[in-house]
Structure formats: C-alpha cells, structure tokens
Amino acid sequence: MFDPKKKYASSDFDPIPANIYPVRCREFKKNQSKKKDGGEYLNLEWEIVSGEYKGRRLWSIQSLKLNIDMVADRFANLIISTGHTDEFDPDDMGVLHKILDGSVVRAKVITEEYVSTKETDSNGSPVVKTKNSIEAFMEASKEDKAAAAEMEAVADAIGSGTGGTGGMNKKDLDDIPFGG
C-alpha cells in the first residue's frame, strides 16, 4: 500500500543535525534592511562539500552594522575563517567577492525552534518548527578545500558538456521539449 500522507524523503529545507560542517560560499548578495533602523546586510548561501549532507544548502545573514561590537566580531569571525586578515572596506563589493565567493570554511550549525507565523495546527494554535542557523565559522582543513574543489570540478564538467549530460550542456537540456 502507498500512504500519500507519509513523508518518504526529506526536503532540502529539513533541518540537519547540529554539527560542524565544511561549506563553500555559493553566492551572496548585499541587501538593505526594510526595518526603520535598517542597515545593510549580506545574505549568504552555503553548500556542504563533504559527508552525509554533501550538497545540502544553508543560508546565513550577516549584518553590516559594524559599529555594533557583537556584529563586528561576528563579521570578523567570518572573514578570518576564509584566511583573509588584511584590513578592507566592507562597502567594496569587489573586495567582498574576492574574499567570500567560493570560499571554503567550516560552519558551526545549530538547530533552533521557532513559532511559525504561517502555519497553525488543527486547533488553530501556532506550529513550533525547527530550523538550522550558523552560529560561527572556522577555517577549513585541506581535506575540506579538496572536497570543495572536487565538487566544483564536477559542476564545471557538467556545465561544459563533458560529463553527466551525454555531451549536452545545460542550455541544450533547457531546450528539450516535454509534453505532447
């Protein structure tokens, strides 16, 4: 029998166990906060590069209100974990790209409970859910960096049409018609 109510696979958004994971910065964007006291922040996307959760994605937000000591310390922790220790202008996106884009670090991932503002249970009560957050960053090992380089090489091979797609590149695959 097939039970459609049963969850057969986990999604990429299901929380993973709290642990330290080697991650690679896939991309980041600088955004402006919508709050009154606002300020700029970085929205970072990370990918786990080895182990049981290889390929899973994590996201973190880094405030750029560096006049607040705790925020400045957290930002310094991220930057130093990439191996960069020279002073720089955090408003210079070119420098930030050189430091962060593709960088491999270790992320201390924790799990946190929160009350969903979008879901309620059958009684109309808010639903308590669990999510992951990155609490801190550390410098990656040589093995972590090698695993990330291997993942990148595979992605490049697929993108160039030399592996996994029968010689077709991603654009060719997008042009294959489906349906009647």
Structural description of this entry:
- The structure is a single chain.
- By secondary structure, this protein is α+β, with helices and mostly antiparallel strands.
- It has one domain.
- The chain contains four helices and five strands.
- The chain has a five-stranded antiparallel β-sheet with strand order 3-2-1-4-5, with helices on both faces.
Briefly summarize what is shown.
With 180 residues, this protein is of the alpha+beta class.
Which characteristics define this entry?
180 residues; alpha+beta; five-stranded antiparallel sheet; 5 strands; 24% helix; disordered C terminus
Distance between the termini: 31 Å
Query: Which strands sit side by side, in order, in the main sheet?
Result: 3-2-1-4-5
**Unreliable stretches, pLDDT < 50, 5 or more residues?**
162-180
Biggest sheet layout: 5 strands, antiparallel
- Broad shape: globular
Question: What's the layout of helices and strands?
Answer:
Blueprint: E1 19-32, E2 40-48, E3 57-63, H1 69-81, H2 93-100, E4 104-120, E5 126-139, H3 142-159, H4 170-174
Antiparallel strand pairs: 1-2, 1-4, 2-3, 4-5
